[in-house]
Each structure stands twice: as C-alpha cells, then as structure tokens.
Design goal:
Helices cover about 15% and strands about 60% of the residues. It folds into 2 domains: about 30 residues; about 190 residues, Beta Barrel (Porin). It is elongated and about 70 Å long. The chain contains 1 helix and 12 strands. The protein starts with a helix and ends with a strand. It has about 220 residues and is mainly beta. About 20% of the residues are buried.
C-alpha cells in the first residue's frame, strides 16, 4: 500500500472512531428523549368526610358533645402531572388536581377542592409485559374553596400515597392508571368555612385527617 493510501485509511479510521460517541449519544437521546412527561388525568374521587362536633342539650338541661361524620359528595376529578426523570426507574412529579363537590351538612354548600403536590414515583419492573407498575408519594397543600363569596377558603398541609400502571402505546404516548389516597391535616379542633364577618362558621370539626381516595385514567405525552 502506498504511503498516501495508508494515510487516508488512518484518517478515515480516526474520524470514524471520533464520530462514534456522538452518534451513540444522538441515538440514545432519540431513544429516551428528554425524560419529561406531561399527563392529563380524569377520574372519580370520593368526597371524604369531616368529623363534626355537636353539643346536645337533654330534657333535664344537661349538655353533651357528640361527634359524627359530615360527608362530601363523590364526584369527578381532573388534574395534570408533570414528571421529569431522576433515575432510569424514578421520576420527580409536580401535580395539580381539582374537584367540584358539595358539603352535606345542616347548611349544605358547594365547594372546590384543589391539591398542589410535589414528590415523585418509582417504577419496579415490567409486570410481565408492556405494563410498567409504579408507586408514588407526594406532599403539598389542599385548598377548600366554598362557592359562596362571603365564606373564606382554607388551605391545609396535605399529602398523597398511591400506585399505578403505565402502558406505553407509542414512543411518545402512554396510558396511565393512577390510584391515590389524599390526606389533608386539620388542627385538634377548628371551625371551617367561616364568613369574613363575625357570623357563625358553617362547620365545626374535631381534629382529624381528611381522607380522599382517587382513581384516574391519564394520557401521558413524553418528550
């Protein structure tokens, strides 16, 4: 082989070896994308219940305190979650959800319940097929907003735990079945849904955790 031909072969080999990592990285990015997911959810949410405290006066004028549950109406819930990849099998999550319901108390009111949560989920295998199961945990706030202008909204610390299944349909689309249990935390004894004036509050509750199970189906768009 002539010296010029040998030099040409060496240069071509060097160029190929230098370009291979870039090609591999491009292929890897094409396979995995940016690791960002946006999921739009719609589903069914239990109304939950508050523990009400009621003072009862008997015929002999003695008084006693009775506790009972005041339920909210079950209804549809909607939400959106944004996830970005932390590890191959773990994602961070910021999620917002909303439900319109009504309080079945002695003074029924319509209200909106919103959750803003931060946390993440971790997958744990392929489930024997294309489905990918996961578990999640989040923490954030819950806001209860009465549909009456003279009643104040309240915001409480809230969190959620859950599980679900992802089912990839295409490279950029997947279905996500999501089951969560929300919990909002109230003080040992409190009055809620109070008017801005000094009038009586709608509800008096004894310290409790407000629970709401939620089942939702989501469409995930992957970038």
């Amino acid at each position: 082989m002539r010296r010029a031909d040998a030099m040409t072969v060496c240069l071509m080999a060097a160029a190929t070896s230098l370009s291979y990592p870039a090609v591999a990285l491009a292929t890897d990015a094409d396979d995995h994308g940016l690791g960002i997911e946006t999921t739009f959810f719609g589903g069914y949410r239990s109304g939950g219940a508050f523990r009400e405290t009621v003072t009862i006066t008997a015929a002999d004028e003695t008084t006693g305190v009775v506790t009972r549950d005041v339920h909210l109406k079950d209804s549809a819930g909607f939400g959106v979650a944004i996830n970005w990849q932390a590890e191959p099998d773990a994602f961070y999550e910021v999620a917002y959800s909303r439900q319109t319901t009504s309080l079945r108390s002695k003074a029924p009111i319509d209200l909106k319940i919103e959750y803003l949560q931060i946390g993440g989920y971790a997958t744990f295998g392929e489930g024997g097929g294309r489905t990918i199961p996961y578990v999640l945990i989040t923490i954030g706030a819950a806001r209860f907003s009465p549909d009456t202008v003279d009643l104040d909204a309240i915001t409480k610390l809230a969190g959620a735990i859950g599980t679900g299944i992802k089912y990839p349909m295409t490279k950029h689309l997947a279905l996500r079945l999501d089951v969560r249990l929300y919990a909002a935390f109230f003080a040992s004894q409190a009055s809620i849904f109070c008017p801005s004036t000094e009038a009586q509050c709608v509800q008096s509750i004894r310290g409790t955790t407000f629970w709401q199970p939620d089942v939702a189906l989501g469409l995930t768009v992957k970038f």
